[in-house]
Amino acid sequence: MNFSKQRESILEYLRGTKEHPTAERIYSDLKQDFPKLSLATVYRNCNQLCEMGKVVRLTTNGKTDHFDADTSDHQHFVCTECDGVYDLFFALPKKILDENLDDEFQADFYQLYVYGTCRACRKSKTA
Amino acid sequence: MNFSKQRESILEYLRGTKEHPTAERIYSDLKQDFPKLSLATVYRNCNQLCEMGKVVRLTTNGKTDHFDADTSDHQHFVCTECDGVYDLFFALPKKILDENLDDEFQADFYQLYVYGTCRACRKSKTA
DNA sequence: ACTAAAAATGATAATCATTATCGATTACAG
DNA sequence: CTGTAATCGATAATGATTATCATTTTTAGT
């Protein structure tokens, strides 16, 4: 159903974490189960899973994209100190988008990123 | 006040356009006034203007970042067909962010991207 | 203005994330 | 089984961005 073992493992791995790993991170973690795993395979499969709609790509301001297997309508907090990406479980009221998009633009989806500092980084900053 | 001529020109150029140019675009357009302009200079200055808070970096899902000299609290529509970036002049009610951020996260700013298709691309699609 | 120190430049090499290539391997339909 | 399509792993290539560095420009203080 989901084709290769590699692809299934990547999806499973993403579904089993609350972090939002980068391709590199997925690669190094799964490397333990698949010693011959290739980074290219991770990128390929992440892209395909995104196209299938089973995974969402998070393009934060960092250099690297993150992946999220939670495709529900939720947002993300990005810590500008540690680059951590955290879930914010809320959706924007439809009204807001409807009111602010004329028929010039047809919206398919949206992503909201809130930037700031997480508690851990604020602490280590003062320390 | 704004240091080099190049930096002033880049800021002026950004302030004078409603598009949200990439570094490459800024470079090729300003090259006409500054034949010796270097792409590195554009990147350097865009980064500095961002740090100064005079320019905002837009990291859409495309490969290239865009820059925006309008630092007011507004959002962007990204056409997934033509990669165009358009202004959406509205801000989120503070309430929404306050309600959904516990004190784990201290928000500094946010960016909302709405993805979809612009009218021009919808037309050329059906045609 | 004159001048030394600091900041910025242009040209280009280097880096880093991601994608493309390609021969070998694996999955699946008949 | 067997042929075909999909996928893999390894690695080269690409593309955006950043780093380097010698030279030029800007700034502050005389």
Outline the structure in words:
Two copies of one chain form a homodimer. With 127 residues, the first copy, chain A, is α+β, with helices and mostly antiparallel strands. Chain A contains five helices and five strands. Chain A has one domain: Winged helix-like DNA-binding domain superfamily/Winged helix DNA-binding domain (Arc Repressor Mutant, subunit A, Orthogonal Bundle), CATH 1.10.10. In chain A, the strands form two sheets. Chain A has a three-stranded mixed β-sheet with strand order 4-3-5. In chain A, a hairpin with a 7-residue loop joins strand 1 and strand 2. In chain A, helix 1 (5-15) packs across helix 3 (39-52) and helix 2 packs across helix 3. The longest helix of chain A is centred in the middle third of the chain and has 14 residues, at 39-52. Chain A starts with a helix and ends with a helix. Chain A binds chain B through residues 57, 59-61, 75, 77, 79-80, 86, 88-90, 92, 96-97, 99-101, 103-119, 122, and chain B through 57, 59-61, 75, 77, 79-80, 86, 88-90, 92, 96-97, 99-101, 103-119, 122. The structure holds a DNA duplex (30 and 30 nucleotides).
β-sheet strand percentage of chain A: 15-25%
Distance between the termini of chain A: 51 Å
Question: Biggest β-sheet of chain A, characterized?
Answer: 3 strands, mixed
CATH topology of chain A: Arc Repressor Mutant, subunit A
Please give the count of helices of chain A: 5
